[in-house]
Design brief:
Blueprint (H helix, E strand, L loop, with lengths): L1 H20 L9 H4 L6 E9 L8 E11 L6 E9 L2 E12 L4 E10 L7 E8 L2 E5 L10 E8 L4 E9 L6 E10 L2
Antiparallel strand pairs: 1-2, 1-10, 2-3, 3-4, 4-5, 5-6, 6-7, 7-8, 8-9, 9-10
Length: about 180
């Protein structure tokens, strides 16, 4: 319990310090980070879980609000989701890391999922497609998982959560669409 609280305090302090220390007011995101601008604003998603544990399809909704951190290094998004009647509240932070030259996706849970296991995934951004690569597939032992976003036309996005037994062939298990709200 103490270790978990210490980890939470350290992460919170690190995000606070980073958001207050890097870029001066009015700074613009780097060219790599500007690729994430497409998700700024308030979005509402609706979708379907194609295969649940009960074998019956389910539905889900996401309400998402995204903005840049004050230092223009982190895209911060709050999510209020409902998965087949189960509410899930989370904070997402997307960024580009200049050390390893890659995008990263972090999701922290306040309710609906265990707080000690945030979702952390490398992310590829290629044109209007983002892929958050979750679990790697280990053939015969564990399915892989990823989330794919296709942005466009403006104000619209398609999303699919996919699984794979081999890491090469992917099957959607959830799919839906989102639209930017005015």
């Amino acid at each position: 319990m103490k270790r978990g609280l210490l980890l939470l305090l350290l992460c919170t302090a690190g995000l606070f310090i980073a958001s207050r220390s890097a870029s001066p007011a009015g700074a613009q995101p780097s060219s790599e980070l500007r690729a994430l601008n497409v998700s700024l604003g308030h979005w509402v998603f609706h979708g379907t879980t194609l295969k649940t544990k009960s074998g019956k399809p389910g539905s889900w909704t996401w309400s998402e609000d995204c903005r840049w951190s004050p230092n223009q290094l982190y895209l911060e998004c709050t999510f209020s989701n409902v998965w087949s009647g189960k509410p899930v509240e989370s904070l997402v932070v997307d960024t580009y890391n200049t050390v390893d030259h890659s995008y990263w996706h972090y999701e922290f849970y306040a309710s609906g999922e265990k707080g000690g296991k945030p979702f952390v995934a490398p992310m590829t951004v290629t044109g209007n497609t983002w892929i958050e690569s979750g679990r790697k597939a280990i053939p015969g032992k564990r399915d892989g998982e990823r989330i794919v976003y296709h942005w466009g036309p403006p104000g619209h996005v398609r999303v699919a959560i996919e699984t794979s037994k081999d890491g090469a062939h992917w099957t959607p298990v959830d799919q839906g669409e989102g639209s930017r709200q005015k």
